[in-house]
Amino acid sequence: MSGTLFIAGRSHNDWRKWTPLGRLDLDLERPWYRFRHVRGSQRAEELQILLPVPGFGELRRSYESSHLFPVFQNRVMNRRRPDLPDYLESMDLPTSVTPIHALWVDGGYRVTDRLNVFPKLTRGDDGSFRCRFFAHRTRHLNSGAQRRIEALKRGENLHLVSELPDSPTVAIYTEERQLVGWVPMFLAHEVSLATSSTRYDAKVVRVNPVPRPSSHRLLVEAVCFWQKHEPMSGEDFQPLA
Predict the structure, then answer these.
(1) What's the Cα-to-Cα distance from 62 to each of 57, 59, 80, 159, 239, rounded to whole Å?
(2) Residue 167 has pLDDT above 70, yes or no
């Protein structure tokens, strides 16, 4: 398996403000890993995001290794953990996958920092892309919304709604227009380009009950379509080295 993951930082003062900081290219078969900071890291200071990414002291250097770098490894569950099968099941992943696959879904969120990990989206020949993500900020919803989340069923349709023009957020609603969370910020721009033309399909994959944390409560899958846009290809995502 090969692919690309980005790591992003979130502002301390405003959850809607974020920037990509670095890019990890990987090939699990070899294995081989390469990390480079991206141009978005140049906006980190104005957003009050700490740099450099831990373990990568030079912004304009390409780092290569046959081992997964610690800042990413620390976000991967140990294979020997007895709760690994439950953890993978919470993301609708088979137990046969390697734990690093979880980073493609759960964002590598940790309470100890403001970093998130997410995959580079790839547009298909028909202009579509598919992504799975956990709804963000569900713990900030009222009790009625919490009960509605608990009642959601697999395959239930959801609506993704871009909010005010000057806001980068995309809200998640049920068919009866009950707010149940937000699309993660690192996907919001890409998803909003599809929802603005209503060319998307979003459904519930699963709802994880307590004691799963609120950050892993509602798992959503979205299939969106663009006409010409190439995802995650803007200036902020370009490597510095």
Answers:
(1) 11, 9, 32, 40, 9
(2) no
Distance CA 226, CA 11 (A): 29
CB under 8 A, 24+ apart: contacts of 141-144: 141/179, 141/180, 141/181, 144/178
Residue range 93-138, pLDDT digits in tens: 998 888 888 888 888 877 777 899 999 988 888 888 889 999 999 9
Which tokens is 234 given? Answer: 């803007």
Instruction: Say which residue the tokens 């209503």 belong to.
Output: 198
The total of other beta-carbon atoms located within 10 Å of residue 144's CB is: 10
State residue 196's pLDDT score: 59
CA 150 to chain centre: 22
Residue 90 corresponds to which tokens in the numbers above? 């919470």
CA distance 119 to 5: 4
Q: Per-residue pLDDT for 160 more than 70?
A: yes
Which of the residue ranges 29-38, 109-118, 182-191 has the most confident prediction, judged by mean pLDDT?
A: 29-38
Strands 115-119 and 2-10: antiparallel
pLDDT in tens, 191-206: 887 765 557 899 999 9
Over residues 21-44, the mean pLDDT reads 95
Coil vs helix vs strand at 75 = coil
User: How far, in Å, CA of 69 to CA of 113, rounded?
Assistant: 17
DSSP 168-224: --EEEEETT--EEEE--HHHHHHHHHHHTTT-EEEEEEEEPPTTS-GGGSEEEEEEE
